[in-house]
Amino acid sequence: MNISASQSALDFAGKGAERIAELFYWMTGGAIVIWIVVIGLAVYAVMSRRAHPVRMTHWLVIGGGAVIPTITLTALLSYGLAMLPELQEPAPKGSTTIEVAGVRWWWRVNYLDPSGGRIVTANEIYLPVDQPVEFKLTSEDVIHSFWIPSLGGKIDMVPGRTNRLKLHPTREGVFHGVCAEFCGEAHAQMRFRVVVTDQNAFDEWLETQSQASKSSSEMAEGEAMFLSRGCSACHTIRGTSADGMVGPDLTHFGSRLSIAAGVLDNTPQNLARWLVDTHGVKPGVEMPAFESLSGEEVDTLVRYLGALQ
Amino acid sequence: MKIKLWWLTFSPLCWAGHFLASYLTTAIYCAKFASPEGDALPVRIAVAVFTIVALSLITFFGVRSLRLHRRGDATLPHDDDTVDDEQRFLGFAALLLAILSGIATLYTALVFVLMETCH
Ligand SMILES: [Cu+2]
Q: Taking the domains of chain A in order of start, what are their residue ranges?
């Protein structure tokens, strides 16, 4: 697994995460203030041998135990709530809009084309840096939750409902996304990669994604095997007759960083392992393992999938 | 007047009622009557009304509780098995709960002061 990519909300690379980190530090500060006042007075009460005037003890208890904590909490609450309107505001019209559906245990991703079409991919999201992006989030089965800790807050993906989320990346890099709502056996392996790039690289990437896969004579054997082995019942590869919808779109699978929703780095060895030991890699996964493939067949499929750039 | 144990629950119930009413009004209004970009002014006005009602009731229960607590001359810590002790204790506990409920109701209302839309 590529651990150099960030998954920390405190290592922020987006406006939402930056505010969350800020809020986290203020909350920690506020908690420390309350703790010191309350515990400090309690310790003082235990240690102190001197008798105090009754009025003063009342004020120490009420002031230290109730008034100061209430004032601190009120300040923190107001500060936190005041952040929300800006974070919750939808991205301006014309911003990149991405539909993501949670599917046990991967992510269907559609970029809305300004001309009205959809550009389909899966398990990897490219975002242009310094631009607000609007997400429309749904689920095809159970409740999932969409979270890119380094970029911003998380929000549930609820079947039958579309939730929205605005993110605004501020730094280029590769980040981890995760499912943050327990959704079954492979929940912990329901991840994705987020690549934040400059606008040019993003436009280029999206242009590539919008096209069908290029085919060449070297790929013919692999394509035929993909179709004859039944992979096409579940997977779409645009430009071929494979049009299954059960699993992730593989049209440009070769260009992805990871396999199986962020679980393995996309290398030929890992891909071969994924095809024959699918359930060893990701227990519970909804793809059958193809143990019966010969070593040569696996190689052919791996080469073919890697060539889907 | 003599109060029963139930008296303790009245202020927290006002807080709970205020919370529920605010929550339901917002959920229904924002889902059914406002656009996603929608302004939430009607909801904010409704919550202002709920808040006035809830705080008035809580103040009433709080003041009554304080009076009950002050009445009689049973001495601290009010744990004798007498009616006087019982009443003073209940009055005091209910007063504290009224203060807590009042603050909690204000916290709920604060959300609507700071949030102007349905997003
Ligand atoms: Cu999930």
A: 15-88, 96-209, 217-306
**Rounded to a whole number, what is the distance in angstroms from the first to the last CA of chain B?**
49
Cα A153 to middle of ligand 1, angstroms? 16
Compare CB distances from A82 to B36, B107, B114 and report the shortest one's residue: B114
Q: Give the pLDDT of residue B119.
A: 74
By C-alpha distance, the chain B residue nearest A83 is B114
Q: Cβ of B114 and A164 within 8 Å?
A: no
Whole-number pLDDT of residue A1? 40
Unique residue bearing structure tokens 């991205």: A91
Between B81 and B24, residue with greater pLDDT = B24
CA separation (Å) from B43 to A43, A79, A86, A195? 47, 22, 19, 40
Residues 6+ positions from A48 with CB-CB distance below 8 Å:
none
Using the mean position of ligand 1's atoms as its centre, give its distance from the Cα of residue B25 in Å.
31
Structural class in CATH, domain A217-306? mainly beta
Q: Do the domains spanning A96-209 and A217-306 agree at the CATH topology level? A: yes
* CA A185 – ligand 1 centroid, Å: 9
CATH level 2 (architecture), domain A96-209: Sandwich (2.60)
What ipTM was reported for this prediction?
0.81
Q: Which residue type, as a one-letter code, is found at position A83?
A: M
Residue A89: its chain B contacts at CB < 8 A?
A: 117, 119
Where chain A has pLDDT below 50, the residues are: 1-3
* Chain A interface disruption, residue of B95, B105, B107, most A CBs within 10 A: B107
Three state DSSP letters for chain A: CCCCCECCCCCCCEHHHHHHHHHHHHHHHHHHHHHHHHHHHHHHHHHCCCCCCHHHHHHHHHHHHHHHHHHHHHHHHHHHHHHHHHHHCCCCCCCEEEEEEEECCEEEEEEECCCCCEEEEECEEEEECCCCEEEEEEECCCCEEEECCCCCCCEEECECCCEEEEECECCCEEEEEEECCCCCCCHHHCEEEEEEECHHHHHHHHHHHHCCCCCCHHHHHHHHHHHHCCHHHCCECECECCECCCCCCCCCHHHCCEECCCCEECCHHHHHHHHHCHHHHCCCCCCCCCCCCCHHHHHHHHHHHHHCC
pLDDT at A4: 57
> For the segment B62-95, what is each residue's pLDDT rounded down to a tens digit?
999 998 888 777 677 777 777 777 888 888 899 9
